[in-house]
Design goal:
Distance between the termini: 32 Å
Radius of gyration: 19 Å
Number of strands: 5
CATH class of the largest domain: Alpha Beta
Structural class: alpha/beta
Mean pLDDT: 90
Shape: elongated
Strand content: 5-15%
Low-confidence stretches: 1-14
CATH superfamily of the largest domain: P-loop containing nucleotide triphosphate hydrolases
Order of helices and strands: HEHEEHEHEHHHH
């Protein structure tokens, strides 16, 4: 494994650098698949990474894009004529919606079957739980390599909070991180929002973050608004 430390989907100049990815039990499989490219098996050289918002899917896609030179797409509603099956693409936000019409997704998967190009698909849901109208779309997605990013454990939340704070230039003592981890909701979004709230409070009060601030944010439920 060559991917090491960093934050997940949080605005920062170096947020998506390869050497700044936090590896944990929740995302190790997804990171390993990114490292395996271009040796992705299957008739379609593709990978689906699915998991919660702010869980690092975009970060992994950025790492892969730097390696592969891929183009990122957020929809296929304008058709697929521009898709070159010898090139590489990220389908960001794949879901059975108007942005990803069933017929266009089916044609795209057909175009990349047996081709030299690659597809990295990012989704909130697993392929099996997506209610596609065309059975052919579901069946083709079902045989594509898949990696899930799961709920973060305490170790991941600890490292994530620390890194998000560092990216904000926010001094966060160990006792504050420990306090937050023990009491926050186990979601990546909650970690992001907690740091945002602490940063705003620190600026407003013109004080270094302290335990009282963390307690207020958690008690007010500001870390679970998403």
């Amino acid at each position: 494994m060559t991917i090491r430390q960093t934050t997940l989907d949080f605005p920062s100049p170096n947020n998506h650098a390869r050497g700044r990815f936090i590896i944990g039990a929740c995302n190790a499989m997804a990171a390993d698949w990114i490292d395996r490219w271009p040796e992705w098996p299957g008739m379609i050289r593709a990978l689906i990474i699915h998991g919660p918002r702010c869980s690092g899917k975009t970060h992994l896609a950025s790492i892969w894009t730097e390696t592969s030179g891929a183009t990122t797409l957020t929809h296929l509603k304008d058709g697929i004529d521009y898709l070159d099956p010898t090139q590489h693409y990220v389908f960001d936000g794949l879901a059975p919606t108007s942005d990803w019409p069933d017929d266009m997704v089916f044609l795209a998967l057909t175009r990349f079957t047996g081709a030299a190009g690659s597809l990295l698909m990012l989704a909130d849901q697993s392929p099996a739980s997506m209610p596609w109208k065309l059975a052919d779309v579901a069946s083709r997605l079902a045989v594509i390599n898949t990696a899930q990013i799961t709920t973060p454990d305490d170790a991941m939340l600890h490292d994530l909070l620390q890194k998000l704070a560092d990216d904000k230039g926010l001094a966060l003592d160990e006792d504050i991180i420990t306090y937050i981890v023990k009491r926050m909701e186990r979601r990546y979004e909650s970690a992001v929002h907690t740091i945002q709230a602490l940063d705003e409070m620190s600026i407003t009060e013109k004080k270094k973050v302290n335990l009282s601030m963390a307690r207020k944010i958690l008690n007010d439920g500001q870390a679970t608004l998403f």
